[in-house]
Protein 1
Amino acid sequence: MDFSIKAPDKAPSLNAEKTGCLALGVFENQKLPQLTKALDRAGDIAAALRSGDISGKAGSTLLLRQPKGFAAERLLLVGLGKDDAIADKDFSQAASAIASAFATLGAKDAIVALPLSDVKGRELGWALRQCVAAVHDKSYRSDAMKSKKDAAAEGVRKIALAVTPDAATSARAALAQAQAIARGVTLARDLGNLPGNVCTPTYLAATARKLAKSHRLGVEVLDRKQIEALKMGSFLSVAKGSDEPPKFIVLKYQGGPAREAPTVLVGKGLTFDAGGISLKPGAGMDEMKFDMCGAAAVLGTMQAVAELKLPQNVIGIIPSCENLPSGRANKPGDVVTSMAGQTIEILNTDAEGRLLLCDALTYAERFKPAVAIDIATLTGACVTALGHHNSGLFTRHDDAHDALADELLAAGKASGDTAWRMPIEDAYQEQLKSNFADIANIGGPPAGSITAACFLERFTKKYTWAHLDIAGTAWKSGAAKGATGRPVPMLTEFLIRRSAKKPKRK
Ligand code: BES
Ligand code: MN
Ligand code: ZN
């Protein structure tokens, strides 16, 4: 898909643009946005509204062929809802209606001329991203494993987004961000959707190496022996239940001065989680191929950051293995020693994510992170608590961590990839007491997502840290089963904002 920004000197010149399709907004109650009004010299658009052929309700569409007064072959009218202060939900609906229409149109190129700056409480860049994301989403296919590919995305391949000249520069920057995010989301979705027998830890490592080559990142892939040498006894205890070799992947993007503290992203990379000896029930177990979506989000975000050449340092860490029952697998009651030296009693082998992450978070100390964020499909309890709308956000509750939490929440809101903050308190830590080791790996049924976060908290004392539980947001079940690519938009937006806040160096 080819996107560009078009900034005509005078809006009415859009009448003279030769294009396969010009998409214009209309409102309910027969009203027209200023831009549409200015272009509707022949009055056909107003007439279409009067005729009742299009209601103007958000997402309603009407296609007019060979419109009078336009060089465009078609006009696509799209409803933006009630009035000129456009609600963001209405705009999103309009964007996805345009994307749907474009996907099946005979036209190859199009111009979108919507009032991008008139969305209530949002900036032009947000509206632009909605358009780009909707088009990417509509053309997304998960047919990598199908012998007969799904029908290729047809329709419009080239889209120009029209803005006023004064907005051209910021629109171009916003477009670059929108595309980097959309491509990062696509990478994360592709990885998530691949089956566990293809997307193994080795495959994730190969993907990281490819990314490193194409985007000039540093990469290190540690194998079992090297992981043993680091004394990651907790991670290895999960890995040893499977014949598939574990990998510990480190990606380094250096966009800032070498000595500047990096943001570290740690992604849970369980390429399949059967639960181990504490075996999961069979129904829906296939969805545990998505247990590497944290890792996929790290790869997608690293790609976006590198594409945007953000002026800061980012490190991605991915501990990856399978969690299977076998003669060598962890057993309930086993005690293992983490890289940090803390001993862990494994009361449930299905609480394996934290066993990987604790060692990865200890490893992260060597980078002296400015902040570290782990991303994990960690608990079913988080799905119970927050459903599929918000990721769970956990941090400690001091000033530095409140500030980090606020940054992540704001990035989530801005990108439409939201999180909800949950508590970490000593009272919950009590639930992780073990009679035989320093800590147990489960805290019982109450507050399962919080005790999981409390477990991780014990391994992150040396830096500012946040934990994102994406169990409810990383993929969809049912007819729309598939990875969402979340939280790549939130994380990329977070890093974009951090880059913007930095004082410009001479
Ligand atoms: N990967 C799962 C979490 C999960 C479960 C995500 C269902 C999405 C849907 C994780 O490894 C796990 O199995 N967690 C257990 C923890 C429990 C044993 C304390 C869970 O949530 O059931
Ligand atoms: Mn599990
Ligand atoms: Zn898991």
Protein 2
Amino acid sequence: MDFIKIFSPATIANLSCGFDVLGLCLENVGDEMTIRKIGEKTVRINKIEGADLPMEATHNVAGVAALAMLREWETDFGFEIEIKKRIKAGSGIGSSAASAAGAVFGINELLGRPYEARELIKFAMQGEKLASGSAHADNVAPALLGGLTLIRSYDPVDVIRIDAPPELFATVIHPEIELKTADSRSILKQSITLQNAIIQWGNVGGFVAGLYTNDYDLIGRSMTDKIAEPVRGMLIPGFDQLKSAAQSHGALGSGISGSGPSVFALSKGEQTAHEVASAMGKVYENMGLPFEIHVSGINPDGIRIIEKK
Ligand code: HSE
């Protein structure tokens, strides 16, 4: 096999209470990537469609993740990567993660799968480091493993994959502005009060317990954020209105998707997720803001192979 085409999905990180530790994988939003083996021992980005991103492998998140993997895995050949970006950079639904995770997933397949999916996380994190200055794993882990993921520890990387309750659906609205993760990380406070830490870890535990027991109300009650939302919320147009629109139309909870500016809501049932979408959409229509909106189930598989030969 020396060619593979994959679908690399968008992801929602943090999920309100789990800054840098929780994430989920979306079903129908994502990039397409093709990777080919080449005779030369190098990594080349030979085409990017749909975005203006660096072509130099050492400056490209997919290239950096691929190179991190190849440093550990001796080969006498290399890889050429083509990316069709459908996830907008700086939208808050894991655009850089889809490229980084997609590259290492595809190369692993072409190498005959020497690594398990979870072992690829550390390579993909190098792409995130290039993109945002921090090697966070809460987007690459759900892209690679599917479902929902909890980063129990970063040192060493220890990731727990959790199945989504069957009726869990996500709504994500993207005001068409770009917010760089590096910028929205730089404004965060570096310390939190004990009082807020108690609230935060109580909610992470509650959220995970809710996932395991299919307790949708518990999931919703746990979706509060004392760390990022109070600081980042003000960067997002109509943030409070979006949250109240979601809440009053039956969402379990809502918050900032990753580092924003996308805002997400979780709902029980697809119908409710669509009602939440139209309510959130109306907020931006009334403000005269262009936006994109997605309703999606939780993707249990993560990155998907479209073709290989
Ligand atoms: N956990 C990261 C952050 C996700 O909030 O900065 C970035 O997509």
